[in-house]
Amino acid sequence: MTVRNLDSLFKPRSIALIGASRRANSIGSVVARNLFNAGFDGPIMPVNPKYSAIEGVLCYPDISELPVTPDLAIVCTPPQTVPDIVDELARHGTRGVVVITAGFGEGNDADGMALRQRMLDAARPHLTRIIGPNCLGILVPGMGVNASFSHLAPPEGRIAFVTQSGAIVTSVLDWAERRGIGFSHMISLGDMADVDFGDTLDYLANDPNTRAILLYVEAITDARKFMSAARAAARMKPVIVVKAGRHAASAKAAASHTGALAGSDAVYDTAFRRAGMLRVDTLGELFAAVETLATSEPPAGDRLTILTNGGGIGVLATDALIGHGGQLAELPEETVTALNEVLPATWSKGNPVDIIGDAPGKRYADALTTLADNPDSDAILVLNCPTAVADSMDATEAVIAEQQGRHRGHGQRQTLFTCWVGEHTAQQSRRRFAEAGIPSYTTPEGAVRAFMHMVAYRKSQEQLLETPPSVPELFTPDYETASQLVETAAAEGREILSEPEAKRLLAAYGVEVVTTEVASSPSDAAEAADRLGYPAAIKILSPDITHKSDVGGVALDLEDAAAVQHAAEAMERRVAETYPDATLSGFSVQPMVKRAGSWELIAGFTEDEQFGPVVLFGQGGTAVEVIQDQALGLPPLNLKLAREMVTRTRVYKQLQGYRDRQSADLDAIDLTLTRIAQIAADLSRVKELDINPLLASSEGVVALDARVRIGENGQGSRRLAIRPYPRELEKTVTADDGKHYLLRPILPEDEPALHRAFAHLTPEQIRLRFFAPMKQLSHMAAARFTQIDYNREMALIITDPNKVPGEAELYGAVHIHADPDGEKAEYSIVVRHDLTRQGLGRLLMEHVIDYARQRGIAEIDGDVLRENQPMLALCRQLGFEEHVDTDERDIIRVTLALATDSGGG
Asked: Is the pTM of this model over 0.90?
């Protein structure tokens, strides 16, 4: 379940408090007081057999005596009573429950875990949703709901805050009250027995009263659900996250606190980035981001104008800006000329714009008016340092008046930030800025950091929608060979593939490897080297020794057979001395690969407990653990995502070439990473893959050594946090004229083909499909159609069978998008004008209906203009029912109920 029945929690019409109390400072009494004081416009019904009234309101002895069924119930009773209470509430029709009580398995207590399961078993048959247990509660100021034991009640606002930690809620409320910032929702999830981050992200993403979403995360329990919800939400509004447990010790503390295991922090970082969320490191940075989001849109770029009355604080702000990767905005000649007319002759004549320490409010306003019209700037930071010759409050009021006047005139283009340094006077100014809805910070560094966080968010959204390059050639991996290698080793009880086996697996997926032979003895190694050529390299083969170089198990640049045999014999002796219990299976022999100006890299993947396979890339060699230069990515990867991984490493700068050293073949590196990610997606038995070194040069890449660890057969693609491209849906189809096409899911690389296909549509087709005239398809619209989440939506296209995505033409497409619950999906379809009447529309509809049925979707629907008779006729043939909206009589709603199979993954 995702958003089903969440309205009962966040938009209740009636509320019951089970365990209400008059006992001072008890949870039941605090929650009762908060509920009755929040202004809820509906019945609030306390339940406790000990009392006749609470807060002057009739108290009921038990749930059965309630005069109406509550939409929302808050439970504050001992843990052993909760399962039966939830059962009774659910049977009476309550669909939202907040369990504040703790004692449900925190720290993996067996009795508590059993209670937790009983509680869930009571709720699920009735689709009753539960927040908690072990939570502070929920606050929805716009609904007058304060179902929590919080010490403060925030005003209504446009920001939602969701957290696993109740203590964090109180900290955020304290901070927000001082700044007058309100919230649309404050949700303490606690132990997330039912409602989790994925559910709340889905709900808040579609909430018109929520402008931005803040998360405090300790652990994620359902990675795929979270990633789907996070990606969808981050495309609609800013999502900012603080993740506890960045370091190992704090991660352990977080795990014991929530009863769930905190995964590797670097993997969480990777997941947040892939979803398009902005991660900040501290609550302070979160607060700074809130301050900005509450009052302004993210800036369009990273060009900042600094307006200041003090050179020193202007320099501090500039240092912080450059240090965080931003840039000072250029001042065009006309801007400088305009400033000369309103500023003293001694002003700085550049950015930072220093208007001198005696600047009165009018000087601030005049400068700000001029700077706001600069097209080469994205944001303005106004700084003020208190002086004895100028009134800081006068400057404050002048900035507020100028900003409000610009808003009224609809002239606001740049984002405005302020920083009034100091204490007493500055506090008054910051309070006035908060009242006026202008972000204000205590230090120049803090203001710049908040600005750059917003820049990072905007850039991440742009990067997510970039069109990836086309793959260089059609490639189908030799899955049978790779799978047989893995299954044979598993049948023999082995966890580690031999190096030659690992290289054969890589070769099956198109990764270039160095030719390698296996030798059982030193003399066999010498003979193999003769065949392969010199200089040669040999390495020991042992399932018990992971790092061969640690025992002298690698010998390089061997010039002849005698040197090979001598080196192999020496290896045998060293292994016998240092690892007497190790099994020595023989030696791998390969020719030395020497490429001028090459780099040793590492690439591979491992399996994370929360997020499944995670691809790694970085600087390789024997010192890889010391260098610590790597980037992570979640499969599946395309060439754009692979390049983004590469650019996040320090070695990337070297790989671009310098002085007389040629650039490495970065395209070959990208392609190798995509194929490693495909191995991770295809072969669920493979738990770890290491290529170290992966030799990269201007000539390409080659795997010199590889290690593969296997394990139990996993859940197939279900173990991936992001559902991969469903290759199994690819089919050859035949049109009515006998021509063969490829029907397959859409890919991000198809965007150029989508634009070309749009150009083939007639104006009438465009109007019938989009319900409005359109001259062209924007990049953003095309990216959203091609870069889809296969876990929630599907777009099937008809295209050329023998061309790579992007180069192949797109002749028709059908798209369905399911609701977060996976119950209903809305469809849309279009076929190129020159290919109508070939049966392509029917082919697309039949296949997408079959897909929806297999996924467990219960109903497909869509809107069709009444005049679009060909589409309506096709829908009738396929069994759709037609419905007419009395308010929109030109639009026919068509629906098809599906008899579903069990959903696929």
From this structure: no
